[in-house]
Amino acid sequence: MILSKHLLLLGFLVIITGASVLLSLLSGSVELSFLQLVGELFRPQDRLEYQVLWEIRIPRTLAAFTTGGLLALSGVIMQVLLRNPLADPYILGISGGSAVGALSAILLGLNSFWLNNAAFAGALFSIFLVFGIANKFGRWSVTRLLLTGVVVSAGWGAVINILLTTSSTNNVQSMLFWLMGDLSQSTVGLKHGLLLLVALLGGLYVSRSLNVLARGELVATSLGVNIDALRLLLYFAASIFTATAVTIAGSVGFVGLVIPHALRMLGARDHRILLPYSILLGGSFLVIADSLARTLIAPQQLPVGVVTAIIGVPSFIIILRSTITK
User: Fold this and answer.
1) Measured on CA atoms in the order 271, 260, 317, 14, is the torsion positive or negative?
2) CB contact at 8 A, 247 and 123
3) Which of 51, 58, 118, 177 is the most exposed place for a label (fewest CB within 10 A)?
4) What CA–CA distances, in Å, run from 194 to 102, 118, 222, 289?
5) 2-325 CATH
């Protein structure tokens, strides 16, 4: 009975994934019919439709799915690591460090290559800063990690405000779009796909330990789980996933918070099921949100983070009410 329920949910997620990708490829200022889409996929020709599909929409769809999958996976891990249902990938200040790096690159007028590297370098600095402070003198604890992350995040917020207030008008719009999440210039490569695959396989490898850890540290310790080693693995894994996602698309909110809760509400509580399903639903959610961002006020585009917030806030309230009533 449980297996059939999980298979039914998997089938639903596969359909949602396929529909979201199709919606993304068909959405935009240049209209493409389904027949034109199929023709360009299997018999590509050097014309406008080819350029729109292969140079803009397919790379953007892949970037959205990869970013959503990484954020959802990181959200699952953070909620187990911090034992906090409100934890999301940004709670430990990673996005703040990345934002400071990216905004500094925009302020200096650097191109997208240096912007992405600056964002990733800022995220890595924040990762090791939070870990170094939380783990000083070997006193590692979830509470210390969480408090350190909140304080560091507040510090990054102050630096971001300074950068915004001291920047020229031309730079502020680019900075705000990055801060709200933007996929208009995003691309992913083989390394991003490999990271998502490694994340999935690694998550499945430790999924049993995650199931035990979710029941409490005493239970996990009594069953032979090395708590300290597992915490380190989860912290750095979730941090790298988040840093990569932020580098691709900026700060896109609510994906890592809403998706794990939605799947748990649908019955996917076992992490052997929850982790792969999170990638599918998280990726699909962000692909749909990006399609809406491109079409709601076309020909202008909204930052994708605005759309995820519009969808995420009521969705989380519904999930929260449903959880309380149960």
Assistant:
1) negative
2) yes
3) 51
4) 24, 22, 35, 24
5) 1.10.3470.10
